[in-house]
Design brief:
This protein is an alpha/beta fold. The protein is built from 15 helices and 14 strands. Helix 3 links the parallel strand 4 and strand 5.
Length: 371
Amino acid sequence: MRFKKQFITGNLPNCVLAIALLFAGCSKHEEPSAVTPEAGFIVVTDLMGRQVKIKEDIEHVGSLFAVASHIVAMLGEADSIVTIPQGNVRDLLFCEIYPEILNARIAKRGNVISIEEIAKKPRPEVFIVNPEVAHDKGQMGLLEKLRTPVLAIAYRNMEQQMEAVELVGQIIGQPEKAGAYRAYYQKTIDLVSSRVSKIPETERQTVYHAINELLRTDQPETLSADWINCIGVENTALSDADRDGFPFNKNYMALEELLEKNPEHILINGGDVYDYIENSPQLHNLKAFRNGNIHLLPLGISRWGHPYSIETPLAMLWAAKKIYPAYFDDIDIGTETRSFYRTFFNYELSDDQLAKILSGRGYKEIKGSGR
């Protein structure tokens, strides 16, 4: 791998430390400990606030977080991934674009990490894990016994997502590609923000976002809450008092509450949820249903608009155009999607693939009944 030698200090650690503070109420975390830089290594700070020393020119990445696999592949290093979580196998388009992913060992099924799989050769030179693993002392203890650096990443808003991608880019030697992703992302935020700022208050729409299940919705201070706020709507899921006690990034609304809020638009991650609404007469009095404003979000490498989706810029454009078509009539989502995949995944979508992505169906084995 190519790598520009540098020690990561300054803004990146600060952003990840900020993420750590957001999770502080979930579990105790270790205080940062001094790690002396050595020749051939870089030092980064992860979301636990720990300084982690990682080889300067790694060849094998151990992903234990589906999103980490997406990021590493997007930055051009899919062939370096030697372990994946089982969820990546259900990312059908991801495996179609990067068939080498299927050669990686499945080292995490559900919440259980297989030490046997990650200990096989080629051994990962860094593990990238999600917040749940990072806060699990038992699993972290098992990983640390292997004497392999463990880096925890997460993001709860768009800025932190861009910074997390940049952090991974530094680790795997692809800072330029990570910078290009940030540039496109920020350009999209600026475009959408500029246009929705011109929408009169009387035209502002109310929106409910269903994440995988009809009644699972946005929690405050999450990526999906942030991008929905950016498109100039009222997110009905966030108008109540804060809901505590739910797992990471999960929040649920009672059916009666959804019916009472009666949003003008419903954004859905998952075709099964869309079908559930279609087949549930008690939901047909919803304003969104009566006006034909049940919108099934596209599904590509990731579920667009999902709390960890790396296709957030596309989700913003798509949703803004659906809800405020007059303000985005010059935006062709098909063209934007082709360009995004060509630029960041080095992949030319066929007409059939593009249609499938925009349909929101077929590119993921989605668990659950939609209820």
